[in-house]
Amino acid sequence: MPRPPQGQLVVLGRPGAVPEEQLDVALVDGPDVTAVRAAARAVTAPRVLAEIEVALDTPEATGAERVAALERHAPRPDHGRLRHTGPAAELVALIEDLADSIDGVRLRPLVLDEDLPVLSRLVLPDLFDRRVAARPLPGTTLRSTQGLERPANRFAAAGTREENR
Question: How much is the pLDDT for 7?
Fold first, then answer.
């Protein structure tokens, strides 16, 4: 079977949950920007992504109103992640502010079908225009998009060791 184009899958995880020497991308979080920056400095993975929970303003309601409506049914669990509730422009400013400390973000929308259209219509184009984010090129792998080296084939190395015995 041929080797996949990116060599091996990108290992994405939380430091402590996955041995850090195995991580290609570390997911960091914290209740505020200062904590996220500190968490990012503490890891040695080649790339660092901050996790941000988002509840964006939509044409129907503000992010705060949407959160309050959901919390009337069940409390919103606190996962210790940075949270943004409000306008798309403020989320762009937050991500731009963090850009010197992290390599990217993993956004966790409050409600996918409500937040995703706002993210795709207002947040992503603004991040691309400000050059805080780059569009992935067609035909590239996640590994190359993240600027990660293609690892050596560990099976080929094992086969070479067997042949040398």
Answer: 74
Nearest to 54 by CA among 71, 36, 69, 66: 66
In a domain, 100, yes or no: yes
In the chain, which residues have pLDDT < 50? none
> Does residue 123 lie in a domain region?
yes
| Residue 48 structural domain | 12-163
Whether 31 maps to a domain, the answer reads: yes
Total domain count, the chain: 1
The DSSP H or E segment spanning 47 is strand 47-56
What's the confidence (pLDDT) of residue 153? 73
Q: Within 13 Å, how many C-alpha atoms sit on residue 84's CB side?
A: 26
| DSSP state, residue 18 | B
**Residues 50 and 94 sit within 8 Å (Cβ to Cβ):** no
Residue 76 lies in a domain: yes
CB 24 within 8 A of CB 46: yes
CATH number of the domain where residue 122 is located: 3.20.20.30
CA-to-CA distance for 109 and 8, rounded, in angstroms?
A: 29
| 3-class DSSP state of 143 | helix
Strand partners, 82: 52
Q: What pTM was estimated for this model as a whole?
A: 0.86
